[in-house]
Amino acid sequence: MATVKALTQSRRLIDTQVQLKEFLPELRKSSWVSLDTEADSLHSYPEKLCLLQISLPHTDVLIDPLQNLDMTVLFKALESRELLIHGSDNDLRLMYAAHQFIPSKIFDTMWAARLLGFAAFGLNDLLSKLLDITLDKGSQKANWTRRPLTEKMANYALNDSRHLRALTDQLRDQLKAKGRTTWHEQICNKLIRDHAAPSVGALQRNSNARTCSSHVAANTQSSLPAVRAQYWACHVSKRCALSQRTISR
Question: How does pLDDT run across 24-56, given as a tens digit for each residue?
């Protein structure tokens, strides 16, 4: 099982404007950025962004948006970076709803796994299979408005971002080896359009749907899981919305 650590200099909570300002130079010069979010969707409606987890080389931080931080500078620093995210649709919706944030590029590890034909593509499934890491998911249904965060909640949240770089490296190599990098880029761009820029996504959704069947048919020599993943990508926003309604029940 993955070893978890208490919050330290390399695993810290940012809940003041001064701390956020001090973190920004490290973020701007970082060679990569992985990200996750937590919300209170199981405890309130409408849901809100309660926590932002960011991992950089040698650093994992929790940023607390409930402490009346001016997050504008943070999202400005993030907008030009490729963000490594697992199952990005809800993260993109949360950040757009809270701060109208639209990233320029993402790498979604869940959709990479789908394109590669993985039967199980949850974060824990992929970490176990590819990196031999097992995470404690005990805080999955926690109330993320709770303050102070318990150590268990903090460790759970940080573990959702801290392994994404290593996971991305393996998945990116496999996508390249199978010639599916472009497919994945197209899916990630569509996720941004549909969930971080809904007004744009709404205008393009119908035209994208019309091209879905022909796009899949043109790649019938590909493996069946990959073809399915392409089809799913054309309808990802509809499926995610249905999933959200099912969970809320």
Answer: 999 999 999 999 999 987 777 888 999 999 999
Give residues with Cβ within 8 angstroms of 154, minimum separation 6.
Answer: 7, 11, 13, 62
The domain ranges of the chain are: 11-178
Amino acid letter, 108: D
CB neighbours of residue 185 within 10 Å: 14
Note the residue count of the chain.
249
By CB neighbour count within 10 A (0-12 exposed, 13-18 middle, 19+ buried), where does 75 fall?
middle
- The whole-model pTM stands at 0.79
Contact in structure between 166 and 131 (CB atoms under 8 Å): yes
Backbone angles phi, psi at 82, to 5 degrees: -75, 125
HSE-up of 199 (CA within 13 Å, CB side)?
Answer: 4
Q: Contact, 181 vs 168, CB < 8 A?
A: no
**pLDDT tens digits for 123-135?**
999 999 999 999 9
Region 11-178: CATH code:
3.30.420.10
Say how many CA atoms lie within 13 Å of 97 toward its Cβ.
15
The amino acid present at 14, given as its one-letter code, is I
For residues 37 and 158, the answer to whether their CB atoms sit within 8 Å is no
Exposure class string for 117-143: b at 16+ Cβ within 10 A, else e: bbeebebbebbbbbeebebeeebeebe
